[in-house]
Amino acid sequence: MDNNSELPIQTEQLAGGTVSWGVLDNIINWSRANSLWPLTFGTSCCAIELMSTASAKYDYSRFGFEVVRASPRQADVIILAGTIVNKMAPVLKRLYDQMADPKYVIAMGACSISGGPFFYNTYSVVKGADHIIPVDVYIPGCPPRPEALIHALLTLQMKIKSGLTREQIRAVNYDYENNYK
Ligand code: SF4
Fold first, then answer.
1. How confident is the model at residue 57 (pLDDT cuts 50, 70, 90)?
2. Which of 16, 74, 86, 128 has fewest C-beta within 10 Å?
3. Residue 104 CB: number of other CB atoms within 10 A?
C-alpha cells in the first residue's frame, strides 16, 4: 500500500487489480483547494502586481487559480487589490454577497488592509476592507510582490485541504515545516 501525499486517497494492488479509497471530506477539500477561482477586484496599483502574478513569469495557473471570473457567482475567492473608496463599498458588499459559499477573501496590500497611505487626511477611503466584509488573508506591502500573493494563495490552499473552517483559517498560522503552530 502506498500513500499519495497530494491526493488524499490510498491505493492497494490486489490480485484482480488496483483498489483506491479515501475519506469523502478529504477528497472534497482537496478538490476545492485545487480549483480556487478568483474574482478580481483590482481598484488601483496593487492590481498591477495581481496581473503580474497571473502572467507567464509567475503563472499562478500552475496551482489552480487560472480561471479568473468576472462573475461573483462563479468565484471562490475575491482578491482585493487596491484602494477601496466609500463609493465602492456597497458594490464590494454586493459582490461578496453574490458569491456562493464556501468563499474566501484576500486583502492584498496596505490599502485594502487599512487604507494604506490614505489612512490619514482622506475622507473618501475605507480604512480596511474588514469594515465591509470578513477578510481571511492579509498580505502586507505597498505593493506586495507576486511571490507574496502566491504564498498567501498556497497557504490558503493548505488550510482548506486540512479541512479548516473560515474561522479556523483566520485564527491558525500555517508553518510549512511543522504544519500548524
Ligand atoms: S497598497 Fe500601495 S501599491 Fe497597493 S494600491 Fe495601495 S498605494 Fe497602491
1. very high
2. 16
3. 23
Encoded amino acid at 97, one letter: D
The cell 474588514 sits on which residue? 130
The domain limits of the chain are: 38-164
Closest by CA position to 81, among listed 119, 36, 44 = 44
- d(C-alpha 82, C-alpha 28), whole Å: 32
**Does 126 sit in the ligand 1 pocket, CB within 6 Å?**
no
Centroid of ligand 1 to alpha carbon of 142 (angstroms): 5
Residue 115 CB less than 6 A away from ligand 1:
no
Q: Check whether 51 has a pLDDT greater than 90.
A: yes
- Tell me the CATH number for domain 38-164: 3.40.50.12280
What's the chain's average pLDDT? 88
How far does the centroid of ligand 1 lie from the alpha carbon of residue 25, in Å? 38
Residue length of the chain: 181
**Does the structure show a pLDDT above 50 at 161?**
yes
